[in-house]
Every structure is written in C-alpha cells, then in structure tokens.
Structure prediction request, 299 residues.
Amino acid sequence: MSEDKTAVRILSLISLLHRDVYWSIDRLAQRFGTTKRIIEGYLKDLESMNYTLVSDEKKRYKIASGGTIHLLPEFDPDEYLFLREAVASVRADHPLRNAILEKINDNIKLPVIGTLATQHVTTNMLTTLQEAMDEGVCVRLKDYYSLRSDTVSDRTIEPIRMLRGMRYVLGIDRKSNEVRQYKVDRMSGVEKLKIKATNLPDFAEWGIDDFLMNGHKGVTVKLGLTNKAASLLCEEYGVRQESLIEQISKEFPYRYEATVYGMEGVGRYVMGLIDQVKVYSPERLKTYIRKKIENQPVV
Prediction:
C-alpha cells in the first residue's frame, strides 16, 4: 500500500477512535477491509505518535479523552507553525535547533491533523443532518454506538432537531418508531436517504429535560441537593446555577425543581449521588429509586 493510502487510513482511524466509542480490532479490520495484524500495527503507530489508547474489558479501543500526550504545551496549529518557523530561523549549528524542531514536528504531524480531521467529519455530519431536516427526509447514522445495548450498528432515523449545542440529534427510530436522542460523537457518519420523514407526533410541544429524556407530558420533580450534588448537576448536566433555589438547610442548601419526561434520567442522577440528594416529590420517583435499590445485587 502506498504511503498516501496508509496516511488516509490512519487519519480515518484517528477520527473513529476519537469518538466516544470503543472499537474491537476485528471490527476495525472489517471496516477498513484489511487484516487484524495491520490494524494492530496502526494502533502501535498511534501510540508512537503520542496518542493514549485505552481499552475496555472486551479489549476494544479508543483514544483517551484529551487526545494526546503533548510534548509541548497545547498550541493550536497556527501557533505550532509559527513556533517551527521561529526555531528554523536559528543558525543551523545551534546545538538545540534540530532537537527542538524534531519535537515540534512530532507534535504537528498527525495529532494536529487528526483533531482537524475529526472536526471536519463532525461538521459534515451536522450539515447533512440539517439538510435532511430541511428537506424532510430520513438519514442513516453509520456505525452508531448504543450505550444501552453496547452494540455498534447503522440506524435509520427521521431527524427532528439538534439538541445540547449540536451534540445530540432528536429523531424517530424507523425500526421501533420511538423518539430518541442520538449523540453525534457516537456515529462515524451520516447518509441522507430518499425516504420521506413522517414526523407523526406533534413536536411543537415536545419537551426535553435536563437528563435528556423526552416526551409530551412531563412531571415536576423537587430535589434537595448538597453542595456537591448541586455542583455536579451544573457541571455534568448543564443546569444553570442561578436556576437552583437556595433554601435554609445545612444538609441540603439547594432545591432543584424542573419538569422531567421520565424517571430513568433523573433516577440515574439520584442513584449516583444517593447520599447527596433528597427526593421531595413526586412519589413516582421515590418508588423508582426504592425499586432500584431493592434490585441491586448484594455483594
């Protein structure tokens, strides 16, 4: 294989592994039409380029959050180029010149290109999704990774609208007819189809809560929060600090009141901070949490 084709493959591999999905060597080999041995070689190449690869219990891989271990402080591409030109202008016999240039070049090659390639792929996907919504047609989400089923497969959906700063798309699954959110980082591509979208529900009043549950009719939840629970709610779920209600309570100084469209989302939040959150209402949420605790395996 030519060096150009190898570079394209590695760029594509970087784009896939940068996403919030673990990939097995078998599946990568199938996707690129090559052998497991070659994929293993590519992964070693990425590590030599200062990418940090992490694996799960099934020996599937992705690039760790944050991308790479930088040999230099994290500069943007233009700053790297400026730095390289500045060092290159130093007299050729300077004892540090070549060593520093080599380190800059190591950092400026595929790590920077890989990040730009990932951004380019994401931009293309968002453009395709918007075009499909404007034209009223379905799309195929390629290699979508589902956290719930821990599987990777293509999904055909009717896209409705973008959510959470363009990080999610709300859509109707054509197979199950369920309305779901799909995270852009968990798909490798988007293909516009000629299938007309039906959009049967009335989405004018369709709501989405802070925990990414959706529906027509919601229920108000009221939670007491410790300082830690309040901070995590704002940092992890994007809730504005000023929307929390201060209350006279040493144990739970904040109260969260909002509409939710299912117990699963808010339930996960409460279960993760079971000693930091007090459920005031509704009774339905209290029952959901109680059953979850009862069904937890005894260690």
